Amino acid sequence: MLDELLTKDTIQIYKQPDLSWQEAIRKAAQPLIENGSIGPEYVNAMIEIANEQGPYFNIGDHIALAHARPEAGSHKISLSLLKTTHDVNLINEDHPVSLWFVLAATDSQSHLEVIQGLMQLLTDNDKLQKLLTATDVTEIQKVINEDIKENKS
Question: What would the pLDDT profile of 4-32 be if each residue is shown by its tens digit?
């Protein structure tokens, strides 16, 4: 499922060191707004949640999985990725992030397969390092597709 959601249209690489964490979330979410998966209010909800609850969606070293409640403007299951070539601090310097995933779901169950696939990918240190050092979208897609093939065999 990851290979269906993380495509050349939903993966971006940002090479400038000038993003705030709010801008990183907005930029990461932009492909999902453009394809109709989420509305702009969903992005605002993700930022508001982080402002209120802190960096709870910092799920590992250099990884954020931003999300909000489905009723905040999610129209279908979707996932996007913004890879920044420079760490962007999520809330504070204790949470440097360079892989910014945005997840949207329509209910409390439908996205579990996506999360499972994402966790399999991100807990493999070799694949995670390849994602962190990737310099273009094709490299990222290759890592994702390799992971899918390995898990099917």
Answer: 999 999 999 999 988 999 999 999 999 99
Its pTM surpasses 0.90: yes
**What is the crossing angle of helices 21-34 and 40-53, to 10°?**
150
Residue 81: closest CA among 124, 139, 126: 139
Structural domains for the chain? 2-152 (3.40.930.10)
Catalytic residue numbers read: 67
Residue indicated by tokens 């932009």: 30
Interior CA angle at 132 toward 128 and 136, to 5°? 120
Cα dihedral: 19, 43, 94, 51 (round 10): 120
Residues 74-87: tens digit of each pLDDT: 999 999 999 999 99
Rounded to whole angstroms, the Cα distance separating 109 from 23 reads 29
